[in-house]
Design goal:
Distance between the termini of chain B: 60 Å
Structural class of chain A: alpha/beta
Oligomer: heterodimer
Shape of chain B: globular
Largest sheet of chain B: 6 strands, mixed
Radius of gyration of chain A: 16 Å
Family (chain B): Belongs to the MON1/SAND family.
GO biological process, one term (chain B): protein targeting to vacuole
Number of strands of chain B: 16
Number of helices of chain B: 22
Helix content of chain B: 40-55%
Order of helices and strands of chain A: EHEEHEHEHEHEHH
Strand content of chain A: 15-25%
Largest interface: A-B, 25 and 28 residues
Number of strands of chain A: 7
Function (chain B): Plays an important role in membrane trafficking through the secretory apparatus.
Radius of gyration of chain B: 25 Å
Number of helices of chain A: 7
Protein name (chain B): Vacuolar fusion protein MON1 homolog
Organism (chain B): Megalurothrips usitatus
Strand content of chain B: 15-25%
Chain lengths: ~220, ~525
């Protein structure tokens, strides 16, 4: 069974729900009392997709401005980025544009980009339209997702999409930062967080771009 | 008020102007290799500056001599724009500049008027609850921008911050520095640290030296978050920068620190409490950490803490951790729930260790079933994965040796009550071992188990501490009898002891009890204090 090890960095302004999202996905829980992340937190998880196991190293970064200058330490050699904003706060969406510029400037290898609008449970206070966010995601060659960490909606798709993106990256000879190896153990015997869905299903789950746009993800940056 | 305001405006204008052409240094947040004046945290060496508040006050002063100088306005500009000065101010300005703490009647009248005036205008400062707070802490930039207020939103206190800035600038005009204003019942204390002004308005019985130490702690907390280098650079580039942008999320660290200052004796004593453990157990834990980390170069400190107490501390040879830095680390751990969720990789500046750069800390709790927090501090930003592996090894070894259980048992222990010591006259005491900067006290029993009781006890200890360490006349022994309790303080070369007795105790009984306490502490020394200073 083929195993891919990749690094995924979660970026975005403070209070948009980065940690809530990661903890919801990895810890399967939601806490109303999450304190701000200091520096960055590190998580790992595994996703099985068809006959490939993807090991994700997730760096959940702090959104506060004082950690901004530390960010390169966390996104260096990352294979995927989750760019998280709060759909009820327009400025958090604007901030994503700076993150994208910074990544484009500083990360040489191709990268899977996922734009994530969080807090859909507050949809009646929405300030960022789905169309605008989707259009922006297309422009940067990424995919757009909407999630609610509170109600556990859409988060699995985000990680699944990143994992699928990394599998495609691993087939790309340009990409040297992904670790790919054949694992000797039989597939599916160790802890699997995700039931292995068919590849096509994973892409369909994506509410935004078509598989064609998915291709562009891989070519970006 | 009318006298001070013109100064204020001029000062702000001149200070802003004078900083426009300063250099833009590149960003450098690399942890620098530690060097410089480190105070010692090993048993053989006394930690002088932590013991005597005045000493630490002076040492803090020495660290940032730029304070008043950088605030110095263009005096010529000021003189020509400010011709209507009237007499009260002249009197104030002519008073002796060398007195550390002075009461300027004219000035305090002015300030009270100002504050009264604000109270009418401001909704918040007019509120009874806000005004009745025993102690206020304010932080502002030298340009008068609010940074922090202990009670209430600083946005609603903007004019009050303006008054504080005006007072500081007014005295600063003469190249002098305002330290404190004393009125009946309320004192105003100022501490100027480069581009930052810290102020405390308090009605409590604390001394100027004690409050100064507290403000220095708050300042250290800010440096710990930003580094001195970054703090200085920001204000050099933009005098009127709103520091709250960079401190976002760090207010709770300051809140938490201030609560600790108000409720715990540790910071008053400048010492830490250790988790009581049999010395062989503690040594075994230490050895596990050392053996798992000794291949990792550039690891400066490994610190294991639990329940706000130190379990063990291992350091790189020739480097020491100052208790004040350890307090900042404990404060960070205690106020950050997020560390419990996952491994963290966190920049932290330890001001006494090196105020210019960050150390990188691998922070994690040992296990779901053992809530002790391990911090591995390094100067190398690329060391996360080696440290993460080392942590796994440490936990495995501790688990195999049943040491996690030992830690859990010690954490679950509620503490020794004073009744177990066989000294019925004593209600409570604090014993500080000077050489190791550690202290121990029994778990509070009636009448100190309530919040009010605990507060009164700490107040009594503060008074004792202040009198014993008064800069003008330090004492070795002090016996104070009042209605609620009799207090005894004793300072020797090796330890400090503060005891609360029942009010009717006789001197002979008190002395007998003190001797028993000291004998008991010595007998049980190994479990209560860390007496060795392990290195990697």
């Amino acid at each position: 069974m083929k195993t891919i090890e990749g690094k995924i960095v979660v970026l975005g302004s403070q209070g948009v729900g980065k940690t809530s999202m990661v903890v919801r996905y990895i810890g399967k829980m939601f806490s109303h009392h999450i304190s701000p992340t200091i520096g960055a937190s590190f998580f790992t998880c595994k996703i099985n997709i068809d006959d490939t196991r993807v090991k994700l190293q997730v760096w959940d970064t702090a959104g506060q401005e004082r950690f901004r200058s530390m960010a390169p330490m966390y996104y260096r050699n990352a294979n995927a980025a989750l760019l998280v904003f709060d759909i009820t706060q327009y400025h958090t969406f604007t901030a994503i544009k700076n993150w994208v510029k910074e990544l484009q400037r500083n990360v040489e290898e191709p990268m899977v980009l996922a734009l994530v609008g969080n807090k859909t449970d507050l949809v009646n206070q929405r300030k960022v339209t789905r169309e605008e966010a989707h259009q922006y995601a297309v422009n940067i060659g990424g995919s757009y997702f909407e999630t609610s960490a509170l109600q556990d909606e859409g988060i699995e798709e985000v990680f699944l999409n990143s994992a699928v993106g990394m599998i495609k990256l691993s087939e790309d000879s340009q990409c040297t930062s992904l670790r790919v190896y054949d694992s000797s153990e039989a597939g599916g015997t160790t802890a699997i967080l995700q039931p292995p869905p068919p590849l096509s299903a994973a892409v369909q789950l994506d509410k935004g771009p078509s598989p064609g746009e998915q291709e562009r993800v891989l070519a970006c940056c | 008020m009318a006298v001070i305001c013109p100064h204020d405006v001029v000062n702000m204008a001149s200070t802003m102007k004078s900083n426009e052409d300063l250099d833009e240094s590149g960003e450098n947040h690399e942890g620098k290799h530690p060097e410089g004046n480190l105070l010692h945290f090993e048993p053989e060496v006394a930690v002088e500056s932590m013991l005597v508040p005045t000493d630490s006050f002076e040492s803090f002063e020495q660290e940032a001599p730029a304070g008043s100088a950088s605030l110095q306005p263009d005096s010529n500009l000021l003189k020509c724009q400010n011709t209507e000065e009237n007499t009260p101010d002249k009197v104030a300005r002519d008073t002796d500049t060398n007195v550390a703490s002075r009461s300027i009647s004219e000035l305090s009248l002015v300030s009270e008027e100002c504050i009264e005036h604000q109270h009418v205008e401001e909704e918040l400062s007019n509120s009874k609850e806000w005004r009745s707070q025993e102690k206020h802490i304010f932080i502002l930039s030298s340009a008068g921008k609010p940074i922090y207020s202990r009670h209430g939103s600083e946005d609603k206190l903007v004019t009050l911050f303006g008054v504080m800035q005006a007072l500081v600038s007014f005295i600063g005009d003469d190249g002098d520095t305002i330290r404190s204003i004393h009125t009946q019942g309320t004192s105003f204390l100022f501490l100027i640290k480069g581009p930052i002004i810290l102020a405390c308005v308090y009605k409590s019985r604390e001394s100027v030296a004690q409050i100064t130490v507290q403000l220095n702690y708050v300042y250290s907390q800010i440096v710990s978050v930003l580094t001195l280098e970054q703090l200085t650079r920001i204000f050099e580039q933009r005098r009127n920068y709103d520091l709250r942008r960079l401190l976002a999320g760090a207010e709770r660290l300051i809140d938490h620190l201030l609560i600790a200052l108000e409720t715990q004796p540790a910071l008053l004593l400048g010492a830490v409490q250790c988790l009581p453990l049999v010395s062989t157990t503690r040594d075994a834990i230490t050895n596990v950490i050392v053996s798992s980390c000794n291949k990792i170069k550039k690891l400066v400190f490994a610190i294991l803490v639990g329940g706000n107490q130190l379990v063990t501390l291992i350091r790189m040879k020739n480097f020491f951790l100052h208790p004040a830095d350890l307090h900042l680390i404990l404060n960070l751990v205690n106020s950050s729930e997020s560390f419990k969720a996952a491994e963290s990789w966190t920049p932290i500046c330890l001001p006494k260790f090196s105020s210019d750069g960050f150390l990188h800390a691998h922070v994690s709790y040992l296990a779901e079933d053992c809530q002790a927090c391990l911090l591995l501090l390094t100067v190398d930003p690329d060391l996360f994965f080696p440290l993460s592996e080392a942590k796994q090894k440490i936990v495995e070894k501790l688990r195999r040796a049943s040491l996690l259980q030992s830690i859990n048992a010690a954490l679950a222990h509620t503490g020794t009550p004073v009744s177990q010591l066989g000294v019925p006259e004593a209600r409570h005491f604090l014993y500080k071992c000077k050489a190791t900067a550690q202290f121990w006290g029994p778990v509070p029993a009636p009448p100190y188990q309530t919040t009010e009781g605990a507060k009164r006890l700490l107040d009594q200890y503060r008074v004792l501490h202040h009198r014993l360490h008064a800069p003008a006349q330090p004492l070795k022994l002090l016996y104070l009898q009042d209605n609620a309790e009799t207090m005894l303080g004793w300072v020797t070369t090796g330890f400090e002891l503060y005891v609360a007795f029942e009010p009717l105790v006789t001197k002979a009984n008190a002395i007998g009890a003190v001797n028993k306490i000291v004998r008991w502490i010595k007998k049980d020394d190994n479990g209560l204090f860390i007496t060795n200073a392990p290195t990697f």
